């Protein structure tokens, strides 16, 4: 699971649109411009860790287990289906009280794209054959 977390973390090299909006939302001399880049990076890291623990780890483990010995793309598609169910449940709860549904849908789509890249790395690594017994330590 460390592979999917690392890929997810490296996907934040390209920051999400909401982080760029927060960074440039207020002029530098405005009293509300107290959101420093360190706080924005901390929020990005918190999003990354929360998404990895709550969505990627369960969906990667369950998708690999459900798709074992069933074809080449089945584990990845199973993991994506579990991730979609987990994030859709959070999305539906958030949509009940949200006024800006378009912004929330963009945030959800951003998480799904970043998460699917991480899950693809995990499933690719999980599908590799184990090394021979003599090569293991």
Short structural summary:
By secondary structure, this protein is an all-alpha fold.
Give an overview of the whole structure.
This protein is mainly α and 137 residues long. Helix content is 72%, strand content 0%. It contains 5 helices and no strands. It has helices at 2-11, 17-23, 37-66, 74-97, 101-127. Helix 1 (2-11) crosses helix 5. The protein is elongated and about 65 Å long. It starts with a helix and ends in a 10-residue tail after the last helix. The mean pLDDT is 75.
Please render the helix and strand layout as text.
Blueprint: H1 2-11, H2 17-23, H3 37-66, H4 74-97, H5 101-127
Helix pairs in contact: 1-3, 1-5, 3-4, 3-5, 4-5
pLDDT < 50 stretches: none
Structural class: mainly alpha
Count the beta strands: 0
Write the H/E string, N to C.
Answer: HHHHH
Distance linking N and C termini: 21 Å
- Helix percent band: over 70%
Radius of gyration: 18 Å
* Beta content: under 5%
So what's the overall shape? elongated
Discrete helix count: 5
Overall mean confidence score, pLDDT = 75
């Amino acid at each position: 699971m460390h592979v999917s977390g690392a890929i997810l973390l490296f996907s934040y090299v390209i920051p999400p649109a909401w982080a760029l909006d927060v960074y440039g939302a207020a002029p530098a001399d405005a009293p509300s411009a107290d959101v420093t880049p360190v706080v924005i990076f901390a929020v990005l890291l918190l999003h990354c860790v929360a998404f990895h623990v709550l969505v990627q780890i369960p969906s990667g483990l369950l998708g690999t287990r459900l798709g074992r010995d069933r074809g080449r793309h089945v584990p990845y598609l199973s993991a994506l289906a579990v991730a979609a169910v987990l994030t859709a449940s959070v999305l539906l709860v958030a949509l009940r009280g949200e006024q800006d549904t378009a912004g929330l849908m963009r945030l959800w789509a951003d998480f799904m794209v970043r998460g699917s890249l991480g899950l693809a790395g995990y499933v690719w690594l999980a599908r590799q054959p184990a090394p021979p017994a003599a090569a293991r330590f």
